[in-house]
Amino acid sequence: MRSIKQIKDIKGKTVMVRVDFNLPIKGGTVADDFRIKKTLPTIDFLQKKGAKIILITHLGKGGETAAPVADALDKFTKITFIPEITGEAVIEAVKKMKGGDVILLENLRNDPGEKGGSADFAKKLAALADIYVNESFPVDHREDASIVLLPKLLPSYAGFQLEEEIKNLSQAFENPKRPFLFILGGAKFATKLPLIKKYLDLADHVFVGGALSNDFLKARGYEVGKSLKSDEDFGIEELLQNKKLIAPIDVLTQSDGKLINKKVSQVGKDDIILDVGEETLSTLEPFIKEAELILWNGPLGKYEAGGGGTTKKALQLVADSKAKSIIGGGDLVSVLSSLEPKSYKLKPNLFVSTGGGATLDFLANGTLPGIEALK
Ligand code: ADP
Ligand code: MG
Q1: Is the residue at 372 inside a domain?
Q2: Using CB atoms within 10 A as the burial measure, which of 58, 146, 178, 238 is most buried?
Q3: Count of domains in the chain?
Q4: H or E element: which one contains 44?
Q5: Residues 218 and 276 in one domain
Q6: Residue 28's CATH number
Q7: In this structure, are residues 259 and 277 in contact, taking their beta carbons and an 8 Å threshold?
Q8: How far is the CA of 187 from the centre of ligand 2 (A)?
């Protein structure tokens, strides 16, 4: 994989940068510009070198305009939005560009060729530029045309944030520092089971919280009442024997409309588990404090509904610890964003991944289709 630092004679060249500005839009404006900020070093570098920059992104599943994204980006760098993806209007706009100019094309997924992996669509995009840059780590687990086909048609390079993601996330599976603590929360047991298995090998301790731990409690024979759990049987009994596994010993439940901290053995048929409990957090604390490396994905509780307490406290412990920490997952990162001081998110020992599904896939497989396409 080549870095954009290796591009020769950038001046005057047209560089197509695949970004992932699939950002939450509320009332027609971007609600969180974290990913934009993380992409600025790449845009800035290319601009200073005198390249003409064409940004391409998807937004949602298609059907929406990327115009709000252009407005959000315009706060950082002057940008022209072209409400088309291919065709005459785009060709004309690119012809008029000067070195240092930045344009953003319309939502790639408005063309079925993007998700459909159309070679023809990739060719049309390639015809607009001299060079391709992948700066779209959060979507690099997809085999979309702009991710896996386009880089095969142009000289292709990795953006700075993509390199950062690979460098930081790889620390979890390439000679990890020890003690290595893996914290896994959130939901979607099926997608996270491969990670639990892999990191029970790689890490020294694996703490499972969130709705995932309900499945472990159930497998241990405990009542989980009306809590969120999987319907499938994943055959996880064997994992329960693993000494590295740390599961909750108490939980915060919603019982008769009240929030009550209960031992896992006391959960009733009508209870809903919202968070791991206080005693569990005390059990986790020494592991956080002694760790040299912490990898954390997914919140420990239903943070949107009163179950965010331990996630916040544990995030503070992690941020204040001596460990190098890698934080991933859209939901966990939004809890981190809600913490005061805001500077937590910027602590140098904390790496906050821009990915969700891509982060999980990269941690599980060590690569992604979008990365392979750059080789
Ligand atoms: P991330 O985006 O950080 O990877 P996930 O998407 O896997 O995390 O899971 C986040 C979701 O899990 C949130 O909607 C959260 O409410 C939910 N969740 C976590 N713990 C519980 C719980 N005990 N009960 C119900 N939902 C939970
Ligand atoms: Mg999520």
Answers
A1: no
A2: 146
A3: 2
A4: helix 34-48
A5: yes
A6: 3.40.50.1260
A7: no
A8: 8
The residue range of the domain holding 16 is 4-158
Residues 267 and 230 in one domain: yes
Best substitution site from 32, 212, 326, 331 to test ligand 1's pocket, by max atoms within 8 Å of Cβ? 331
Is position 39 within any domain? yes
* Separation of CA 298 and ligand 1 centre (Å): 6
Nearest atom within ligand 1 for CA of residue 330: 2
- Confirm if 265 and 250 have CB atoms less than 8 A apart: no
Same domain for 126 and 145, yes or no, is yes
- How distant is the alpha carbon of residue 38 from its chain centre? 12
In a domain, 371, yes or no: no
| Cβ neighbourhood burial of 232 (10 Å; 0-12, 13-18, 19+) | exposed
pLDDT digits (tens, 9 = 90+) for 64-97: 999 999 999 999 999 999 999 999 999 999 999 9
Q: Whose CA is nearest to atom 27 of ligand 1?
A: 302
CA 223 to chain centre: 33
Counting DSSP H helices and E strands in the chain, the numbers are 15, 17
- Which ligand has an atom closest to residue 359 CA? 1
Atom 14 of ligand 1, residue of closest alpha carbon: 302
Whether residue 178 sits in one domain with residue 143: no
Q: Taking all residues of the chain, what is their mean pLDDT, rounded to a whole number? A: 95
Q: Which helix (H) or strand (E) holds 274?
A: strand 272-276
The structure's pTM equals 0.94
**CA-302 nearest atom, ligand 1:** 16
Final residue belonging to a domain, choices 158, 183, 218: 158
| Residue 357 CB contacts under 8 Å (≥ 6 apart), including other chains | 138, 141, 191
Look up tokens 């080549």; give the residue: 2
Report pLDDT digits (tens) over 103-115.
999 999 999 999 9
Residue 14 falls within a domain, yes or no? Answer: yes
